[in-house]
Amino acid sequence: MFGILNAILNVGPAYDTSGLVGFPINVLFVHLMQNQNGRTLFSNGAVNTALKDVLNDYGQMLLTNKSLTYMNTKNPKGWLSPKAQEKIDYSLYQCDPKLPHYGFKSWNDWFLRTFKKNTRIIGANTPSNEPD
Hints:
By secondary structure, the protein is mainly α. The chain has helices spanning 2-8, 25-29, 36-42, 45-61, 82-85, 107-111.
């Protein structure tokens, strides 16, 4: 189990249409969380302390270029792949398709991507939602 956990936490998330994509560690823990033994495990203070350190390390990795493993157009699990682009319209965001990784420096940079000026969809007709 620790080998799988290590593999999951050493790359950024792959493009996936399942509900587990945002937090890949759930793939490993989802079944444990659904039974009494798992609930007992995850309510243990020592386990939570250890997991907090693991998750903090994962969060730090998502700020680095190491997290860009799936930020490409060629891999079917890439966030810039044709399949992903059916769901994500990159023309709305400040990025450059000519640059590696469209110019995103990390998974976190991609996740917090900025809308181009005057392209915000939600609340577009309300002045308070206009980007600066």
